Amino acid sequence: MKIVSICGTKKSGKTTTAVKLINFFKKQNCKVAYLKFSPTISLDRKNSDTGRAKQAGADSIIAQDAENTFFYLNEKTNFSEILSKLDTDFLIGENLEKKYDYKIFCAVDEKELNNADLRGVDFLSGIYSNCFLKYNSLPVYNANTEIEEITNFINKDNIL
Q1: Long-range CB contacts (< 8 A, 24+ apart) of 123-128?
Q2: How many CB atoms lie under 10 A from the CB of residue 94?
Q3: What is the pTM of this model?
Q4: Residue 113: which of 93, 138, 142 has the closest Cα?
């Protein structure tokens, strides 16, 4: 499994980049998982049925609709444990805390890049990529128009 970490500032194009990667890899018949890390994300709003079950002390919550099943654990799970449960070719992770196989940084403008910690970043994307081809020594790829270049970079060591 290859892990692609997409990080950056709010509204910079992280999710757009992730969705473009997912679409491309799925067209190549790859299995793709998506992980969104957000310290403020809440799947169980306070007054929802699942939120009320969580407040009552449920250790796990399973919600199911006509097409999907969602599992909620009432604890932070170790990243290695999450990985062990996945049967996938690619994990596209948004806002992962550290670098794994590849790290993409998305930014709105050069000011954000000047203030960012770009250690370990392989290339840039996001809104910034609409106007620039390079930032310092980092290549810049536009996920809307250069998805093949991005996936070639990710697969440079072993094309699927």
Answers
A1: 123/150, 123/153, 125/6, 125/13, 125/17, 125/150, 126/8, 126/12, 126/13, 126/14, 126/16, 126/17, 127/11, 127/12, 127/13, 128/12, 128/13
A2: 20
A3: 0.82
A4: 138
Query: Which two tokens mark 55?
Result: 């407040």
Q: Do 25 and 114 touch, CB atoms closer than 8 A? A: no
Which amino acid appears at position 89 of this protein?
D
Cβ contacts of 139 within 8 Å, gap of 6 or more: 123, 124, 133, 153
Rounded to whole angstroms, the Cα distance separating 75 from 97 reads 18
Residue 159's H or E segment, with its range, is: none
Cα torsion 49, 82, 7, 15: sign:
negative
Percent of the chain with pLDDT over 90: 49
Band of pLDDT at residue 158, cut at 50, 70 and 90:
low
Measured CA to CA, the distance from residue 113 to residue 107 in angstroms comes to: 7
Query: What's the whole-number average pLDDT of the chain?
Result: 86
Q: What is the pLDDT of residue 30?
A: 94
